[in-house]
Amino acid sequence: MHYREAYPLHGTGIDFRTWTGFLSLSFLCHLLLFGILVLTPGYLPQRDTFPDVINVTMVTLADPALQVTGESATDAVARTVPQPTGLKPKSPAPAATKRKRPKTSLKKKTFKSSKVVKSAIDRLEENIQDTRPDPLQKALERLKQEVGEAPPPSSATLPSAAVRPRPGLVGGSAEGNRKIIELLDIYRVEIASRVRKHWAFSASLAGGQEGLEALLAFKVMPDGTITDIWFDKRSGNRHLDESAERAVRKSSPVGRHPESLTRPYVTVGLRFTPEGVK
Question: What does the alpha-carbon distance between residue 101 and residue 181 come to, in Å, rounded to a whole number?
């Protein structure tokens, strides 16, 4: 092979080394430019990124009753920002908290058992219905009528011992005395019925005691006023005794004495038990 064929640039006036240098320099320049583009992203055009959250300004719509002045309706609609869907409305302001009441210890109330018992008795007394037995009233009126229509006994037909009346009884005949005694018994029954209306006692206040019984007596004046209350026998239960005395005092005044009675007072005795008044 000839020398000219092996080296094509031979004879062109360009040195082989010079050509090789230019080629290497061109390669290095391209390599440097490529490295600058890769390693320096700051020179790249910046992309426009959009945030994931859209900031929206809430605008209160104008009252439809008001007229739009100074601007056309088109401009008003153009400036109105539509409210995006999916946003939760603002929760209303919390209502004013109620003022807490100070807690009161119940220890002080437990020691005032007498007030609790008294209030329970008062409630029971309010629930008692004020009813009066009609048969008792009819019998009382009948006896009053019979006693009033009975003729006075003649002193000529009776012994001197029979003419003298017994204390509190009118007339000396056996028939008149019997009617007066019956009238007096019915009057006492009527008083007991009135006391029973004001009687209030709960079995729970007996405390599990059995056979409780209080014997209470009092005087009834001619105008029906009750005086001189005393116990012939106490039950041993304070609540029962107090309830019995309270019922008698609340019953005053009762009905007036029958017209045929001349006693200054009538003594009445009652028996109080948890079951009732006898």
Answer: 65
Q: Domain for residue 209, yes or no?
A: yes
Q: What is the pLDDT of residue 217?
A: 95
pLDDT, tens digit (0-9, with 9 covering 90-100), for 258-276: 888 888 999 999 999 988 8
Give me the pLDDT at residue 208, please: 75
Cα–Cα nearest to 213, from 278, 136, 149: 278
**Total number of domains in the chain:** 1
Mean pLDDT over residues 63-79, rounded? Answer: 52
Question: Would you state the pLDDT for residue 168?
Answer: 45
Alpha carbon distance 153, 180 (integer Å)? 14
Average pLDDT over residues 151-175: 45
Query: What is the Cα 207 distance to its own chain's centre?
Result: 29
Is residue 211 in some structural domain?
A: yes
- Find the domain containing 250 and state its range: 114-152+165-277
Task: Check residue 51 and give its pLDDT.
Answer: 61
Q: Specify if 99 maps to a domain.
A: no
Looking at residue 248, which CATH number applies to its domain? 3.30.1150.10
pTM, two decimal places: 0.42
